[in-house]
Amino acid sequence: MALRESTIVLFDIDGTLTLPRKNVEPETKAFLAQLRKAATIGIVGGSDHVKQHEQLGSSVLEDFDYVFAENGLVAFKEGKLLATQSLRDFYGDEKLKRFINFCLHYIADLDIPVKRGTFIEFRNGMLNVSPIGRNCNQKERDDFEAYDKIHGIRQAMVAVLKEKFEDMKLTFSIGGQISFDVFPVGWDKTYCLRYLDTFKTVHFFGDKTAPGGNDHEIFASERTVGHTVTNPSDTIAQCTALFLS
User: Catalytic residues, which ones?
Assistant: First the structure.
């Protein structure tokens, strides 16, 4: 079986194909077009499809064979919608309201240098919680990331939520610079693998592959060959050595 039919190369987005929350560089797009001739390629990210569109361009559904938004809860194949799953249908509004209210009270009492707006983003298949608020600018985002590395703001909040909402069987995944994702157990990035049974080998490239990072579960899955990268240039270098040499 040819490599293109037997192998899929899956990529995280932030820190892997782009710098965090930045747009894809022309060099990376050219590399992906070249790689696609050798193997099937796809992306899997925690963000919704609108954000993928913003970062990777208006042709994102044409540039990749598979596009998985919200960890695969919104799935596209060859430009067409495959399937969706809904957090609202899974939990119901009462449970979600209890969780959201607690988060907002916790953040209100949190003493950090800066707060902005959009502390909770409700997505189709997950909640994204940001102690500083997603409306912060890039400098504030960078500053919070540095502050969080020292003070563990996100880790501490996650620890409290795990204990408080144990009955909901939630997964908490810290990724990016300012937030963490919350979703049911099993709804991490491994969720997308159910659509890839026809492939003998699934390579995954991501930057947050350590335990607690939002790439860890799929990186460590028995179904994948996991690769840790540090930035888009490293992604290109590793893939070139593996698939294009």
Answer: 12, 14
